[in-house]
Amino acid sequence: MAKQFNMDDFIKSCGEPHLACALLLDVSGSMAGDAINSLNNSIKQFKYNVSDDPVARNRVDVALITFGSEVKVVSDFMPVTEMPVPVLRAGGRTDMAAGIDKAVDMVKERTGLYHNLGTPCHKPWIFMITDGLSTSSESAMMQAAQKIKMAESKGSNGHLSFWALGTGDYDQDELFSLTKRVIELRNQDFRGVFDWLSESMAVISQSRPGEDVEFGTLPENVRKAERGRRIDEDWY
Amino acid sequence: MKIEYKGISGTVYVIDEEKIARGGEGSIHNIQNNVTQVAKIFKTEYRNREREEKLILMVQTKMSEDLLEQITWPQDVIYDSMGFAGYIMPKLKSTDVITAVYNNENGVTYDCKKRLLTAMNLCVAVQNIHEMGQVCGDLNPQNICINLDENDRKNVFHITMVDADSYHISADGKTYRCEVGLAEYIAPEIQKKLSEGYTLKNAKLPTYTKESDLFALAVHIFTLLMNGCHPFACAKDNTIQQINDSFDKNSVVTPQPIDNIKDGFFPFYHKKEGITYPVYAPSFEALPEKICNLFVRTFTDGYDNPQKRAGTQEWIDTLQECAGVNCSNIIKCVKGHEYFNHNKYCPFCGIEERMRGILILPQNDNLEPLTSYKAGSQTSQQKEQHDSNGIIALVLIFIILFAAVCIKACNGTISQSAITDMTVGELHDEADMLIYK
Fold first, then answer.
1. Which CATH number, 1.10.8.60, 3.40.630.30, 3.10.20.600, 1.10.510.10, labels domain B99-229+280-351?
2. Residue B150 contacts A, CB cutoff 8 Å
3. What is the mean pLDDT of residues B106-123?
C-alpha cells in the first residue's frame, strides 16, 4: 500500500528560519565510474550529517537535480531528513544551461512558498557539480548566466548563492562566467566537499542575521579556483 | 582516559575524556563516581580571567536542590595543572529542547494543554532567575531544556535552563555580560544598539535586562501557543489588494522576524498592506483577549517603554485563568485539536485547510508540482484532489485577473498590457525577499 503524504513531506517546522539548498549534479557520461559512485555515497553522507544536527535538520530543505542529456528533478525541495538517497547513473551529454534554468526556477518557487507561508528564510544555495564542458548552446549558457546574475543581485543582499564545483576536464572560464564562487576538486573523491557542504548548511542555518558566517576549511582535495590556474598545478 | 581536576571547593574530580556534548566554547564530560553532576571544560582560548571571576562569583550563590533542577547553575570552578579549566554543574535529566514542543518533533503532537503547561513552567524558571537578582540574556530555545517523558508524571514538561555560564550576571557593582544571543529573541532596544555597529561585548550597558528577558519570554509563549510561529514572522498577503502592488517593482516583500522586531511591527496586531500573519499560525483572535493584551503590551507598548512588558507572575496568572479550572476552557474538535472555547471553529483545522491550499497548488506553470518526486506512488484519490485543486487555481487566477482589471478601471494607473501579461508565474517573481544573509 502506498503511504499517504503528510505535511512533513513538504516542509517542517514552518516557524523556524529555513535554508533551501539545491544540489545540481552533472551526470554526463564522463562522470561514470568512480566519480558517480563517490557522488552517490557523498549525498548519502550529506543527508546523514545534516540530519544529525539538531537545529539544521528542521531548517535545511534540499532538492536534487541532475543534468546529462536532459534535466531530471530527482527530488523537489523537502526537509533534508525526508530526502531520498538516489543511486545516480552517469551517461549522455552535459546540458548545463537547462539544469541551471530548472534549479533557479525551483529555488525561486521555494522562496515564494516560504513567503506565502510566512516561514522565515536564509539566502538559498545552488551547489552545482560538473566535470566537463557544457554541451548547451552558447546562447542558452548566456541566458543561464544572466538568470543567475539576476537572482544573485536582487535586493540588498542578493537572493541566491550559486556555487560551482569543477573537477576533471571542467572549463574554468565557463564556471567563472556563471559565478564568482568557483571551487575545484583535484580528484573524484566527493566526500570531503560534501562534509564541508553539510557543515556550511549547519552553520548558516544557525547563523545570526547580519553576522558574517565563517565556513569551515575546504578539504585537502578542494581549493578556491583562480583564473588561469589549472587543477593539479601547485597542489600539495 | 581520565583526567583529574581540582575544584575551588577542594574536591578532586576525575573526569572522563569522552565528550557527552560539545559546544562552541567547550565540551561536557561525565565525572567518575558521580551521577548527579557533569563538568564543562573550556577550550584553551576561552579560559580567561573574566570568565573565571564570573564563575567564582556564581558558585558563591547557594542554590537549593529544587532550584538546581530548574537551572544548571555552576557549583564548583575547576582547575588543571595549567590553571582555570571549567566548572561543575548539575547533570541534565533530559537533553530535549523546547523546539521539540514548538514543532511537534519526533511525530508527537503537543496540544494546547501541554503547551500551556510548558509556557507556565518557563515563566516560573525565568522568574526564579530574576528573583536571584540575575538576568538570563541569551534566552534562545537551545538553552531551554524540557522533560518530555510522559511516563514521568511528576516532572513531565518541567523546564531546565542551561548554559548558565553565559548568563548576564551582576554583583558588587560589576556586570559580567552575556555576550551571545540569537537575534530572533533579542529585544528591540538591544537590536537598536547592535544595528549601530556595537556588539553585545562592547555596547554601552545596559544590554540585557529583566525587561529584555521578558521580551524573549513572550516570544516563547507566543511560539508555544501559536503552533510554532514566531510573533514577528509574516507572510505575503495574496489577496486582491496585493496584485495592485505587484505591478510596482518595489512591491511589498515580506520582512524577516528580525526586521520586524527592530521596526516594532507585530504582524498579528498591526496591519500593513501586502503583509499578513503566517499561514501556519492561528489568527490572533484565536487566543483569549487577556493573553492577546499581554502580547500587545510586551511587543507594542514595550517597544517604546520596555517597563510595560508583562511580568512573569502576570503571565502565570493569566495563562492559568484563561485555561480555566482543570483546563475547562480548552475544548477539542472532532479531529482532536485542542483550542480555547471562545472560538467558533477549530483554528487548527483552519490552518490545515490553508496549508493544503498553498502546498499543493502548483506555483508556476513551468514547474512540476511539489508532489512530483513521488508521483508514482500517488493514489488516484490524491490525483483527483490534485486535479480539483488545479481547477480551483484556474478559477482563482480568473478572479484575480478580473479584479485586477476592475482595479485598473478604477484608478487608471496600470497599463492594460501589464494586466493581461500578468501570469501567476510572474507574480511569483515578485515574491522576492529580504534575506538574512
1. 1.10.510.10
2. no
3. 94
Rounded to a whole number, what is the distance in Å from the CA of B63 to chain A's nearest CA? 31
Task: For residue A158, count CB atoms less than 10 angstroms from its CB and return exposed for 0-12, middle for 13-18, buried for 19 or more.
Answer: middle
Among residues B193, B189, B191, B185, the alpha carbon closest in space to that of B217 is found at B185
| Range from B15-19, B138-142, B293-297, B381-385 carrying the lowest mean pLDDT | B381-385
Whether A155 and B367 lie within 8 Å, measured CB to CB: no
* pLDDT score for A112: 87
A220 reaches B (C-beta below 8 A):
no
Q: Which is higher by pLDDT, B248 or B37?
A: B37
Q: What is the mean pLDDT of residues B202-214?
A: 95
Residues of A (66-95) whose Cβ lies below 8 Å from B: 73-78, 84
Q: Which CATH number fits domain A18-208+216-224: 3.40.1390.10, 1.20.1420.30, 3.40.50.410, 3.30.450.20?
A: 3.40.50.410
Q: Chain B residues with CB inside 8 Å of A9's CB?
A: 374
Q: Which pLDDT score, from 0 to 100, does residue B90 have?
A: 96
The superfamily CATH assigns to domain B2-90 is: Phosphorylase Kinase; domain 1 (3.30.200.20)
- Our CA angle for B293, B276, A117, nearest 5°, is 115
β-strand partners of A19: A60
Cβ(A168)–Cβ(A132) under 8 Å?
yes
**How far is CA A236 from its chain centroid?**
27
Domain boundaries, chain B: 2-90, 99-229+280-351, 355-429
Confidence band, pLDDT 50/70/90 cuts, at residue A12: confident
pLDDT tens-digit profile of B372-419? 333 333 344 444 444 455 555 555 555 555 554 444 444 433 333 333
